[in-house]
Structures are given as C-alpha cells and as structure tokens.
Description:
By secondary structure, this protein is an alpha/beta fold. It is built from 9 helices and 12 strands.
Amino acid sequence: MLSPESLRQSRIETVAHSLREDIGSGDITAALIPADRVTDGRVITREDAVIAGTQWVDEVFHQVDPSVRLNWQVKDGDKVNANQVLFTIAGNARSLLTGERAALNWLQSMSGVATNCHRYAQLVAHTSVKLLDTRKTLPGLRLAEKYAVTCGGCFNHRIGLWDAFLIKENHIAACGSIAKAVETAHRIAPGRPVEVETESLDELRQALDAGADIIMLDEFSLDDMRTAVGLAKGSSKLEASGGINANTLVAVAETGVDYISIGALTKDIKAIDLSMRLNPIT
C-alpha cells in the first residue's frame, strides 16, 4: 500500500533525477535572459483529462527555485476539459523556463495514466469489481504511476515483491505443490496476503483447499470464470488476469470476479497534451 512518506521520498528523489538529466551543468538557453527578469503565466491542457501529479510539479519548482509561486486551479483526481487552466505560475523568468519541461513531463505522464484508468473504471462502474494495476511500470517511476492509478479510480496490486505473495507456476514447481507453497507462505510471513496463480479449475480447487487469500484466474474462459465464482463462494477473492483489454473488460467483470488486473493501466500510456504560456518577460 502506498504511504504518504514513501510517496514523498520517491517524489523528492525522482524529481531530482529528472532535473539532473534535463539541466545537466546548467540551462544555457535560460542564461540568455537577464538574471533579474520576472514573469508569470499559466499551464493549460489541450485535451480532456483526469489530473495526477500536482505535487510532482510543486517539487520541480521547489527544487529549481523555492521562490516560484504556483496557484493550482485543480487537484489530483479532477476531470478537466480541453483549454482549461490547470495552474498559474509566477517568478524568476529563468527559473520558470528551466523547470518547465520537467514539470510538464511529470504532469502530462501521470495524468495520462489517471485518464486511462478513469476510462477503464467507467466501463465497469455498474459492477462491484476492482481494477488493479500490475508491476508493469517504467523503471524508477513505479510509485508515481501507481499513485496516478488511484487518481483515475483504479486500485493498486502489490507495490513490489516484498509486500504480498504471488505464487506462480515456477514457485509451485519449486515448492512441490500449491498446498505446500501456500503453507510455507503463511508460515514465513504471517499476515501477508497470499495469492496463487491458477490456469485451470483443478488448480483453482487446490488453491481453495490450501486457503489462498486471493486466487488469480489466468486466461480463464468466461464460462470457467463463472464456475470459479460459484466454487469460491466468497471463501477466497478471485482475480481475473491475462490479455484483458477495453473490449473484453465488461464481460469479465460481469462474471462476478472480485478483481481484474490489467497491465494496460500503466503500459502504452499516451501523455496528456499540456502547454505553458508565459506573459512578456519584464
């Protein structure tokens, strides 16, 4: 589960890295402008979107120049329309120009994730299913992307390999059986969720008998998903997974599974088109 402190630390570190790779030894183009010049402006969205990443933008300008002033017109999770003003900004002209690209990169990318998740969540709003992200995130940006998922109305699966068990085919083979793997998981980390990936109704029954907390139905047919829901009867949560997209999502949700995990929530994301418009520099 994402914690405010883990997000804060990740935000500071990843923003610092994004500025280092962009600014390097110094912004030579901004240096063309006299050091004492000031300006103000606004950032708009050129398309409809769901916003995520406002604190990352704040962090960019805080690290570039703490005297820069931002006034947000929106908050994370808000739905916005094309040409809407997201925030106004004022301060040293060099600072605004130096921080512009890094700030917009964070906001447009995270809002792209949130917008995509909102689209998926709306498709199944008539059901009780929860849509889960996966570990298919950009290296180094996992917490930011998983935070953006929640802004779009979807939910986080495990954050990494440390916070929950996901027992797959190779783990089962190494342990000897589903029952042995689940038993060992409960013993070595009591209280941690134990999920087992299954590929057939027979494996589902084994996982149910073993007392798995969550059972993943990997590429089950719709009929087999419905059968699985009847077999589980609420004793274990069921998660559908494997090749699910916007075209197949509703039918899967309507089988009655508890969760659907979708790599596409954070993969192949189209960034939102944003623009910073500065007033004349004085």
